[in-house]
Amino acid sequence: MTVPILMYHQIHIPPAHKMPFRSMIVHPDRFRSQMRWLKRLGYKGLSLRDAVPYIEGRAHGKVAVITFDDGFRNVYENALPVLQEHGFTATNFFVANQIGGQNEWDIPIGIQPTPCMSPTQLREWAALGHEVGAHTLDHVHLPDVPLKEAKRQIGGSRDVLQDILGAPVTSFAYPYGDENARLRDMAREVGFTHAVTTERRKTLPSDDSFGLPRLTIRRNDTWLHFLKKCLI
Ligand SMILES: [Zn+2]
């Protein structure tokens, strides 16, 4: 049994002009249509936490894992109502030092400043049954920083989010999908139980829980592209 883990970033109207990573902004109408397709085909959209028994082969059924990176406010505004409407859950991987802030890490590479969810919005996300995952303190390239700093970034993000939430945070996403064996160990050591990368394929029950692959859903993916990624 293989499970697709879908990766989104922003759910918002993409800018008309070209800019770096515009492909990572999916139009709200397209997101709604993708969730509708999943439902129509008998799939249940689940957070990583809720999907673990399926990924590990202990439960069976049509499941697609829905994940968002970076904790953007436009996911709260535009995706959350759609998830609720379909009875789906999802995981958002938050950059802990930017709760109520913005995507500071993107600005040097020419991406528009975009607000991240506030602490109140993060708590509401969780209260509605969705998962709060961690994505470091500052969205760093983990293999490029000293080990001590990498551990502070990984463990610190878990601590900050758990303080805001008052509940355990067990899922982690490596920024830019940058990871290695040492970083997987670190994520385990600080208390996470699962971590996702950006390796492009569906999961297999034999996958390392700290190296789960994901499928990127892009701005211009048609419904056919979308279904191919999910089903094949
Ligand atoms: Zn990210």
From TrEMBL:
Protein name (database record): Chitooligosaccharide deacetylase
CC annotations in GO: extracellular region
Sequence similarity: Belongs to the polysaccharide deacetylase family.
Keywords per UniProt: Signal
Subcellular locations according to the entry: Secreted
Organism annotation: Phyllobacterium leguminum
GO biological process entries: carbohydrate metabolic process
Domain spans labelled NodB homology: 62-232
